[in-house]
Amino acid sequence: MRSNYNKLGSYIRPVDERNSDGSLGEDNLYGISVTKDFIVTHANLVGVTFDSYKVVAPKQFAYIPDTSRRGDKIAISLNTTGEKIIVSSICTVFEIVDEDQLLPEYLMLWFMRPEFDRYARFMSNGSAREVFDWDCMCGVELPVPPLPEQQKIVRDYQVITDRIALLRKVNEIIEAQSFSIFEEATKNSIEKKSLKEYGKVLTGKTPSTDAPEYYGNDVPFIKTPDMHDNLYVVSWESALSKLGADSQSNKYLPPDSVIVSCIGANAGEVSLTSCEAQTNQQINAVITRFPRYIYCALKKSREELRALGDAGSTMININKSLFENFQIVSVERGVLEQVEKELTPLFSTVKNNLHEMVLLNKLTSLIMSRLSIGTI
User: How far apart are CA 163 and CA 177, in angstroms?
Assistant: First the structure.
């Protein structure tokens, strides 16, 4: 054990309060996700009684010891609802003995670190199923700095996450406003035009993976997971080198291109490019003067678009021919230009907010990485 690290067991104790009086019911029942949140359960609760369920009071923790079917994550969360909740009896519930020694919020930050997930999976044991039991939890080692330092770490993290939540809410409001503008402009229109009438349509492509020199950090290479239901793609997992991108120069997309996932369960997801980029072959794109109008039209037509690519097959596949001939609501040119003009500053605000969120998330990662030092 490192000199500034302490074993968690000396700071926590198990709790086994049951909902024996039945005072807490379905509305108070939660599951625990691998994203470290308490979530509303979707289990079939017909005929279920809740008297054996475990109670989790505010500032208490609960986790699922069985780690064998949750990938590389351990499902654990801190009750910050301010009310008592109930969880399945398979969960382990515990609390901090003395909050003047260790803050629950500080400990939760430690549990959110990827390093903790890796440690929990490594330490899990068992034959039929792997379990991170109470003894394993007590054996966790972590730095416990003085209370004022813990408070500063928690406060800094909370300020950042509150800002991220605010920006996310602002973006939701702006996007709703954008759709209102679009719907008002198109409410009396019965005409439709195909996507290819609005601009150039193309499908992405993946450069040869046998040429490692084609991959680097020069040109964003967008894949469906990078879209994540965001209006703009502002971060990505992969990138191409200039050499790789130039090897398929006809696949370049300028900023504000409309991109649409075309294969599988996420088919029909729509985003815009925030900079020059390329995509893989699972994404169709429209290069147009009216990207914001088309974004709104496609978002409103997602189910229709998905149905077009279904065709009774086992997997949705919206190929380029189907995509470029897909029809969206049409308005006269003057109205189209006016809608695009009104949407442009709104979309720019969303893009700026998303860029800020990326930077803020990097700051939260920095705070999490420095927890191992025990000070910020």
Answer: 21
Q: Residue 312's domain is classified under what CATH number?
A: 3.90.220.20
CATH number for 337:
1.10.287
Tokens 């994404």, located at residue: 283
The structure's pTM equals 0.85
**Same domain assignment for residues 135 and 150:** no
Residue 44 — very low, low, confident or very high, per pLDDT cuts 50/70/90? low
Question: How much helix, strand and coil, in percent to the nearest 5, is found in the chain?
Answer: 40, 20, 40
Q: Which of 176, 174, 229, 179 is nearest to 346 (CA)?
A: 174
Closest residue by Cα to residue 284 from 253, 238, 245: 253
d(CA 119, CA 72): 10
The per-residue pLDDT for range 345-372, each reduced to its tens digit, is 999 999 999 999 999 999 998 898 888 7
Dmax (CA) of the chain: 73
Average pLDDT, the chain: 92
To which residue do tokens 């260790």 refer? 102
